[in-house]
Amino acid sequence: MEIYSEEEKQRVAEFSGIRRTPKGEHRYAGDNGKSMLRAKQFVPVEYKVWILVDEVSEKEGSLWLPETTIDRQQEQRDTGTLIKASEMAFSDWNGRKPEIGEKVVFSKYAGSIFRFPKVEGIGVDRYRLCNDKDICAVIEEEK
Fold it and tell me: Which domains does the chain have, with CATH numbers?
């Protein structure tokens, strides 16, 4: 026995911005029927930069870490690869400026976190959209 009628469920779905497709899939109302956004579709604006956050190891020694611990450590991660930068990013910087593809260190809880399915393989890639001023250092490769 269902508690809510189909009409009530539909009203709640409309209110929350979720709609049902003819196949019964749930999608957000604003996606215009697209199946999913991809990380490459995001273009930073103003002074924002797009960073691919380095992954945390799923294992410590011989122990497998629980997913909650991995997620918590991943959110605290402060290193990554600079993927994209807006036209205005780094325009007011003096001295060395990070370039696309370089490893950077950024403020621990800076910006917004986005999760997207990996292009290759199983799992999720985590990205940060943050201000250019949140980048603290560039990690240079040893020669």
Answer: 1-33 (no CATH), 39-139 (2.30.33.40)
Position 42: which residue type?
F
Q: Minimal CA–CA distance to 134: which of 96, 78, 55, 94?
A: 78
Helix intervals (H) in the chain: 6-16, 67-76
- pLDDT, one tens digit for every residue, the chain (143 residues): 455 566 666 655 554 444 444 444 434 344 444 445 677 778 889 999 999 999 888 888 889 888 888 888 888 888 999 999 999 999 999 989 999 999 999 998 888 888 887 767 677 788 999 999 999 999 998 87
pTM for the model stands at 0.67
